[in-house]
Design a protein that fits this description.
By secondary structure, the protein is of the alpha/beta class. It has one domain. The chain has helices at about 15-20, 40-50, 60-70, 85-100, and strands at about 5, 25-30, 50-55, 75-80. Strands 2-1-3-4 form a four-stranded parallel β-sheet, sandwiched between helices. Strand 1 (about 5), helix 1 and strand 2 form a beta-alpha-beta unit. The longest helix is centred in the last third of the chain and has 14 residues, at about 85-100. It holds the Pfam family DUF5615. This is DUF5615 domain-containing protein. It comes from Hydrococcus rivularis NIES-593.
């Protein structure tokens, strides 16, 4: 089984395109009609869709930590600093994660 991604609105389009060219199931916040929506609602939506959210926004880590602490289920967050990884490396790493992991991980 593979992981489907839900891309935060600030993720460069080149990453989304690169992943799709590699067969990764990707849905963007914009395509879902939720641009400008607060992070907790986006995390709820990703969970509803059974997708893991990918973001450069550290606030998702704070929200994920809160949910873990309080025992609130969510499908997960993949985070990387925008400044610490190239677009090509990001595409490669996300493709590996989506192919090698399962949603329960």
């Amino acid at each position: 089984m593979t992981i489907a991604l839900y891309m935060d609105e600030h993720i460069p389009r080149a990453i989304t395109i690169g992943l799709r060219l590699r067969g990764v199931d990707v849905l963007t916040v914009q395509e879902d009609g939720l641009a400008g929506t607060p992070n907790p609602i986006l995390l709820d939506r990703a969970t509803q869709l059974q997708r893991v959210i990918f973001s450069h926004d550290q606030d998702f880590l704070v929200e994920a930590n809160r949910r873990q602490t309080e025992g609130i289920d969510f499908t997960g967050v993949i985070y990387t600093s925008q400044l610490s990884i190239s677009i090509g490396d990001c595409i490669r790493d996300l493709e590996i994660i989506t192919q090698a992991a399962e949603l329960k991980d």
